[in-house]
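User: Teach me something about this protein's shape.
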Amino acid sequence: MNVGQLMTRQLRTCRPEDSLNDAARIMWEEDCGCVPVVQKDGEDRPRLVGIVTDRDVCMAAYTQGKPLASIPVASVMERDLATCVSADPITVALNVLRTRRLHRLPVVERDAELVGVLSLADIAREVKHPAGKSAREAVTAESVGDTVAVICEARGGSREVIAAP
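Assistant: First, the predicted structure itself:
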């Protein structure tokens, strides 16, 4: 099983010059946690240049104290992107997700052309689904669980516990 068989192909994207309000609206309408940021080249192909997450939107709103409509996506988008290609085995994508501590992985082809997004949830659903036998042979529920544990681990190695009054 490869990435192209599980990735989401129907994507909504934004541009670097769009506002965080635009990105947040897409996340709300599509019920998703990230929006790929693309630029069109001369052939009108969507070239991936960044990604903006719901956390990016929230932290920008909090730290900048400005309306989302006045904050450009380019000012908060992640530019150091981990990606994969549609022909990659799921195990390769799972390793990238684990190593980079990500929930989602943009899928690109030649010249960073965006063709999809693969999420950890896509992989987990396939491993659980009865038709996913071929994926289960290489990717187990345990390996997906291990990846979730690594992603959710506190960056400093230990979690601070906050007691409620």
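Now, about its shape. The CA atoms of residues 56 and 62 lie 10 Å apart. The chain has seven helices and four strands. If you'd like, I can walk through any region in more detail.
User: That's plenty for now, thanks!
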